[in-house]
Amino acid sequence: MIDQRRRGFLKGVLGAGVASFALGSGIIPLRAEAANAPDTSGWPKKAFNTPGVDETIAELYGMDAAESDKISLDLPTIAQNGAVVPVTVETTLPNVTGIALLVEKNPNALAASFDITEGALPFVSNRLKMAETTDVVAVVISDGKAYKATKNVKVTVGGCGG
């Protein structure tokens, strides 16, 4: 019984001593610094507030998107819960620089926008929140042109609207 208390006391003293040494010697800094604010200069704020798919694509990329069969849009035909709808987009189009996900009948059509760096696989996976049964549109920017693929998803339980 005494040995257990003695060991606990010695461990505590030793731990406090190590912590004091680390703080005192500067190994562990004793100051708090605020995190740098993220750079939002390239943030497409207006596109996230634009209603309608075509208007959002025009605002985001400054052009219309053509239908393409080289875009694979994988998401359920029936979503049991509109608050969490999984979606995966990949493409065989060359030189992809951006992928966007739009939900037609949501209050704001643009759900996500991704910049794809050179050499990266043109693949994104995300979860969408959908207000009701509607089309989901994936837009891919390839060689400076916009392409899209569309799939309808039936929502059985509310997402954005409750």
Residues in helix, %: 10-25%
CATH class of the largest domain: Mainly Beta
Order of helices and strands: HHHEEEEEEEEE
| CATH architecture level-2 label of the largest domain | Sandwich
Major β-sheet, in short? 6 strands, mixed
Which value, in Å, is the CA radius of gyration? 25 Å
Query: How many separate domains make up the residues?
Result: 2
- The coarse silhouette is elongated
Ranges with pLDDT <50 over ≥5 residues? Answer: none
**Helical segment tally?**
3
Would you tell me which CATH topology of the largest domain applies? Immunoglobulin-like
User: What is the terminal-to-terminal distance?
Assistant: 59 Å
The fourth-level CATH homologous superfamily of the largest domain is: SoxY domain
What's the total number of strands?
Answer: 9
Mean pLDDT: 85
**Roughly what fraction of the amino acids lie in strands?**
25-35%
Protein name: Thiosulfate oxidation carrier protein SoxY
Pfam families: SoxY
Keywords: Signal
Domain Ig-like SoxY: 59-160
Give an overview in words.
With 162 residues, the chain is of the alpha+beta class. The protein folds into two domains: 1-33; 45-155, Sandwich (Immunoglobulin-like), CATH 2.60.40.2470. The protein has helices at 2-25, 45-48, 53-61; strands at residues 65-67, 71-74, 78-79, 85-91, 96-103, 110-115, 123-128, 134-142, 145-155. The strands form two sheets. Strands 1, 3, 5, 6, 8 and 9 form a six-stranded mixed sheet that branches. Strand 5 and strand 6 form a beta hairpin. The radius of gyration is 25 Å and the shape is elongated. The termini are far apart.
